[in-house]
């Protein structure tokens, strides 16, 4: 149906035909426009044209969004009329009201569980964790306890008396004369201040740039990424120097800023120290965090099943999380990447016996739900002096080939390693004797043939050999473990009912890779026949209920017998491959986990 309209003044000429307006209701019209405009996302393509020559629907919508400008004035306009709120049952539901006594009791009890490294708080999302801290108490300063109000304002206000060295001119002159006489009488005072400054400048050791490795902002940014992404943090420490390779500042930061993250200490390189040293250190460290002895090896690891079971138990308690991320942190060259390779039974992370091999964080899949995050080695900032630089060299933080004067740091090696071990390692006879480090390096250079012009000994090259042997664990050394304190309650009594994660590990089959003498191979003050390598290491506050949970293998271990199980492939499994979650007396007992079942999903 068309409509013919006539323009006035043309006698009917110039007729214009217009389409009549459709009488179809608006609600019955099609939802998609039939326009072929380039701005219409629902347009149809011309016949014979392919879709690859035209913009897609999403591209057209995105371009339309770019063209559309928001109405800023409308956005900033404040509504003056009453606004109707959408009805919702949650607005009229019951609210939780708690008294101040109940709130303080809740804070006290929950704070103990949050700060306990051996406990996991379930359903954290449903608990009011924000109530643990009182923001007003931290922000408010009690100034009235320092200075009362009536002493500062009002008619009885007191004015502070300034501390003057002299009240009048005579006392000031007398003080100046007294100081002048003291200065003239003291012969030890050097009046030439310029000479003193020059002497200090000469004596000051210029720090090398290589000692700043691991302290850059880029490395710490990688660390913060790993910590923010992790639910569980594994801190890998060196068995030869456990306390020296722990980062106390990072542990305190995790407790303060991330109380919901759990930390586990991995006592790596336990094959470089005697078994009794490993056991005592693990027992000592278990008083602070869950600790496991570990030997990172793809073919013959130690403590792998115990660490896997402990990780799976933590992951089982975090059922509200879809994925569980585990970050590995620690000093350089402590074996973080090697631990990941041992857990995966293949080389998935690049590792080397030199520091700084890992440059950025790496994301590795352990299971369908558990992921491992490798982190570059970090070094806490410390003042640049000889003691700290020598400690960094012996901890393996610095690459030896980049040190300008390596012979300066060999004195610490000769102080820590026994003379007997040095003679056995470098095959030096009893007739070879030395008084200082330079003389020892000279004998060693002559034996190795490291000579310079005119037959002089190359001390720097020999010092690098000694330091490399130290870093790679070829020289026997260990740090004496301290006595483990007993966990007690606030009343001073032992608490055996405290729920804790108890790790059962047997060190009967752990043989050190280095040869130690009779004095170092066995505990001091004990008979070698009474060596306790076959016993278990448990966290403090545990009782004897673990034997029932372990089964017959645990009871036989307590009698000193070695129990081995044979798998389907014919391999024998030691009794150290078990981890037990130990509850209190009022809780249910948990059984053991078979290590083959724990790693069955890694089978190719």
Account of the 3D structure:
With 604 residues, this protein is of the alpha/beta class. The protein contains 20 helices and twelve strands. Helix 9 (275-285) links the parallel strand 4 (262-268) and strand 5 (291-293). Helix 15 crosses helix 16 (459-471). It is extended, with a radius of gyration of 37 Å. The protein starts with a strand and ends in a 6-residue tail after the last helix.
- Determine Rg (CA atoms, Å): 37 Å
Which structural class best describes the helix and strand composition? alpha/beta
Largest sheet: 6 strands, mixed
**What is the percent of helical residues?**
25-40%
Strand content: 5-15%
Unreliable sequence segments: 1-12, 496-502, 527-604
Silhouette: extended
Give average pLDDT, whole number.
75
Number of helices: 20
Termini gap: 75 Å
Number of DSSP-assigned strands: 12
For the largest sheet, list the strands in their spatial order: 5-4-3-6-8-7
């Amino acid at each position: 149906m068309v409509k013919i309209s006539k323009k006035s003044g043309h006698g009917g000429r110039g007729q214009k035909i217009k389409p009549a307006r459709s009488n179809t209701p608006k609600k019955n019209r099609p939802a998609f426009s039939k326009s072929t405009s380039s701005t219409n996302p629902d347009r149809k393509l011309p016949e014979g044209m392919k879709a690859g020559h035209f913009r897609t629907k999403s591209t057209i919508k995105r371009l339309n969004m770019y063209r559309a400008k928001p109405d800023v004035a409308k956005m900033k306009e404040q509504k003056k009329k009453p606004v109707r709120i959408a009805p919702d049952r949650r607005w009229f539901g019951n609210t939780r009201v708690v008294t101040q006594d109940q709130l303080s009791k809740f804070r006290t009890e929950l704070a103990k569980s949050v700060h306990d490294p051996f406990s996991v708080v379930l359903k954290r999302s449903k608990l009011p964790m924000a109530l643990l801290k009182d923001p007003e108490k931290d922000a408010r300063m009690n100034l009235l306890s320092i200075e009362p109000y009536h002493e500062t304002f009002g008619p009885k206000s007191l004015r502070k008396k300034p501390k003057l060295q002299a009240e009048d001119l005579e006392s000031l002159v007398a003080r100046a004369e007294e100081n002048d006489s003291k200065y003239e009488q003291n012969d030890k005072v050097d009046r030439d201040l310029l000479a003193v400054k020059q002497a200090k400048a000469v004596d000051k050791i210029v720090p090398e740039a290589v000692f700043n490795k691991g302290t850059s902002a880029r490395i710490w940014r990688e660390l913060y990424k790993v910590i923010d992404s992790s639910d569980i943090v594994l801190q890998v420490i060196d068995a030869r120097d456990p306390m020296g390779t722990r980062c106390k500042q990072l542990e305190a930061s995790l407790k303060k800023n991330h109380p919901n993250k759990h930390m586990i200490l991995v006592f790596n390189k336990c094959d470089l120290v005697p078994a009794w040293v490993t056991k005592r250190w693990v027992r000592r460290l278990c008083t602070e965090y869950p600790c496991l002895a570990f030997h990172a090896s793809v073919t013959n690891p130690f403590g792998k099943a115990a660490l896997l079971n402990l990780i799976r138990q933590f992951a089982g308690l975090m059922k509200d999380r879809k994925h569980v991320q585990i970050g590995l942190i620690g000093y350089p060259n402590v074996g973080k990447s090697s631990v990941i390779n041992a857990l995966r039974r293949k080389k998935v992370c690049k590792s080397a016996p030199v520091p700084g091999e890992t440059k950025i964080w790496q994301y590795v899949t352990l299971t369908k739900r558990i992921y491992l995050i490798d982190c570059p080695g970090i070094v806490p900032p410390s003042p640049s002096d000889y003691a700290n630089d020598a400690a960094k060299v012996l901890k393996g933080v610095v690459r030896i080939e980049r040190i300008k004067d390596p012979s300066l740091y060999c004195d610490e090696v000769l102080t820590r390693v026994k003379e007997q071990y040095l003679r056995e390692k470098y095959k030096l006879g009893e007739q070879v004797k030395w008084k200082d480090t330079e003389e020892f390096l000279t004998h060693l250079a002559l034996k190795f043939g490291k000579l310079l012009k005119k037959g002089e000994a190359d001390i720097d090259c020999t010092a690098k050999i000694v330091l490399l042997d130290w870093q790679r664990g070829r020289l026997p050394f260990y740090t004496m473990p301290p006595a483990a304190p007993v966990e007690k309650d606030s009343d001073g009594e032992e608490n055996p009912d405290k729920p804790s994660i108890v790790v059962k590990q047997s060190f009967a089959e752990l043989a050190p890779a280095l040869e130690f003498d009779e004095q170092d191979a066995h505990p001091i003050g004990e008979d070698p026949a009474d060596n306790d390598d076959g016993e278990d290491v448990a966290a403090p506050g545990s009782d004897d209920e673990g034997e029932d949970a372990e089964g017959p293998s645990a009871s036989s271990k307590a009698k000193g017998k070695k129990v081995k199980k044979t798998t389907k492939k014919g391999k024998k499994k030691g009794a150290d491959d078990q981890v037990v979650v130990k509850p209190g007396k009022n809780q249910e007992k948990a059984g053991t986990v078979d290590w083959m079942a724990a790693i069955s999903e890694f089978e190719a």
